[in-house]
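We were asked to recover a plausible sequence for a given structure. The inputs and outputs are reproduced exactly as logged, with field labels preserved.

PROBLEM: sequence recovery
POSITIONS: 397
GIVEN STRUCTURE:
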C-alpha cells in the first residue's frame, strides 16, 4: 500500500480533487435546493423532473463525443475546459433568471461538466495510469466524491439558515476558481507520465484502439451496461426526490443533513474494501454483487419508517456508492483494456447520465400521480434483479 501512494501522489490528489468538485453537478447537491428552485419557477415535482431529465439527457448525448477527447488531447487542457465550464454553471445558479430556458441551460451545464465530464476525467485517469492498482486509485478518486457527499449537504443545510441560495452557489463558484492552480500543480509532468503510459501499452495485447461503433457492436457491452447504470438510475431518482421521501417517512431535514455524514462514512468503508478486492479478484465475477447494498436499501425504504431504519438506509446507500466505482471502473478496463478507455467510458458515462436523467422524471410523475414510494421501490428492485442476472446467464470469457 505504501508503494501505491508513493507511485504518483500528485495524480492521486488530482483524482480526489476533480471528483470532489464534480459534486456541484451531482444530484445530491442540486436536489438540496429542489424546493427553492421549484418555488422560484412555480414547478411541480414532475415538471421540475422533466426539465432536469431533458437537460441531463441532452448532456449525455453531447458527452459521448466530448468525453473521448481525453484520449486525444492533453489531460491538463481537458481538465481546465471542464472546470471552467462548471464554474460558469455555478455562477448561473447564483444569478437565476425567471426564464425556464435559462434553468434548462444551467442544469445542462451542471450535469454535463460536473456529473459527466469532470467525473469522467477523474475515473478515466485513475484507471488508465495506475495499472494493476487501478482499483485502489479509483477508490481514492471516489473518496473525493464521497467527501463531497459527506460534507457539502451538511455545510449547505447549515449555511442556508444565514445565507440565501444565490450566495451559496456564489461560494461554490469561487471555490472552483481556487481549484484551478491545484489542478496544474497536480498534473505537472503529465507529458512524461503519458509517454511512460504509452510504453506500457505494448506489453498488453488487450490494449488496442477502439472506435465508438466498435464498442456499440460488441455483445459484452450490453451484458454489463445495465449493471453499470442501474445504480445511477435508482440513486439519482431517490436523491432528486429525497425531500419528498423524507417527508413521507416522517424524517426531518435535520436528519437528512446528519444522514449524509453516515452515507459518506460508509461510502469510505466501501471504498476501503472495494479497491483492494478489485485489484486481487476477477472483476467480471465479483461485479455482479455490486448492487447488493442498494437492493437492501430499497427494501428498507419500502417497509420501515423508524429513525433507526433511516440510519440503516443511509449506511447501505453509502456502502453502495463506495464499492460501485472501483468495481465498475475496473470492470471495463478489464474487458476492453486502457488505451481506448476514454472512448469506452465516454459511452458509459453517457449511459449513466442518460439513466440519471430518466429517473427524476419517472419518479417525479409517480409522485404527481399519487403512486408514491411503494411503486418507486418495486421498479427499483426489478431493475436491480434484471441487471444482476444478465451477466450470470450470459457468461463471457
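RECOVERED SEQUENCE:
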Amino acid at each position: 500500500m505504501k508503494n501505491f501512494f508513493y507511485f504518483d501522489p500528485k495524480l492521486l490528489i488530482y483524482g480526489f480533487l476533480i471528483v470532489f468538485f464534480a459534486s456541484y453537478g451531482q444530484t445530491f447537491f442540486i436536489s438540496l435546493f429542489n424546493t427553492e428552485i421549484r418555488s422560484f419557477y412555480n414547478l411541480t415535482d414532475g415538471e421540475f423532473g422533466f426539465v432536469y431529465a431533458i437537460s441531463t439527457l441532452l448532456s449525455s448525448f453531447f458527452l459521448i463525443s466530448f468525453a473521448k477527447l481525453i484520449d486525444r488531447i492533453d489531460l491538463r487542457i481537458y481538465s481546465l475546459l471542464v472546470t471552467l465550464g462548471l464554474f460558469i454553471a455555478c455562477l448561473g445558479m447564483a444569478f437565476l433568471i425567471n426564464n425556464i430556458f435559462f434553468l434548462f441551460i444551467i442544469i445542462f451545464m451542471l450535469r454535463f461538466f460536473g456529473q459527466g465530464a469532470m467525473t469522467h476525467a477523474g475515473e478515466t485517469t485513475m484507471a488508465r495510469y495506475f495499472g494493476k492498482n487501478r482499483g485502489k486509485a479509483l477508490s481514492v478518486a471516489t473518496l473525493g466524491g464521497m467527501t463531497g457527499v459527506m460534507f457539502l449537504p451538511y455545510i449547505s443545510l447549515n449555511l442556508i439558515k444565514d445565507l440565501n441560495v444565490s450566495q451559496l452557489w456564489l461560494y461554490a463558484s469561487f471555490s472552483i476558481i481556487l481549484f484551478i492552480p491545484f489542478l496544474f500543480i497536480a498534473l505537472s509532468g503529465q507529458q512524461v507520465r503519458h509517454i511512460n503510459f504509452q510504453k506500457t501499452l505494448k506489453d498488453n495485447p488487450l490494449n488496442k484502439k477502439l472506435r465508438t461503433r466498435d464498442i456499440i457492436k460488441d455483445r459484452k457491452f450490453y451484458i454489463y451496461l445495465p449493471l453499470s447504470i442501474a445504480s445511477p438510475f435508482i440513486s439519482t431518482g431517490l436523491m432528486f426526490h429525497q425531500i419528498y421521501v423524507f417527508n413521507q417517512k416522517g424524517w426531518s431535514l435535520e436528519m437528512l443533513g446528519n444522514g449524509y455524514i453516515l452515507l459518506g462514512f460508509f461510502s469510505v468503508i466501501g471504498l476501503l474494501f472495494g479497491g483492494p478486492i478489485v485489484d486481487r479478484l476477477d472483476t467480471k465475477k465479483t461485479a455482479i454483487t455490486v448492487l447488493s447494498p442498494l437492493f437492501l436499501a430499497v427494501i428498507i425504504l419500502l417497509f420501515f419508517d423508524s429513525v433507526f431504519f433511516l440510519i440503516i438506509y443511509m449506511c447501505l446507500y453509502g456502502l453502495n456508492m463506495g464499492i460501485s466505482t472501483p468495481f465498475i471502473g475496473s470492470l471495463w478496463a478489464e474487458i476492453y483494456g486502457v488505451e481506448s478507455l476514454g472512448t469506452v467510458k465516454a459511452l458509459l458515462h453517457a449511459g449513466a447520465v442518460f439513466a440519471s436523467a430518466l429517473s427524476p422524471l419517472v419518479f417525479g410523475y409517480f409522485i404527481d400521480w399519487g403512486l408514491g414510494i411503494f411503486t418507486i421501490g418495486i421498479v427499483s428492485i426489478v431493475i436491480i434483479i434484471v441487471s444482476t442476472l444478465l451477466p450470470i446467464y450470459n457468461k463471457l470469457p
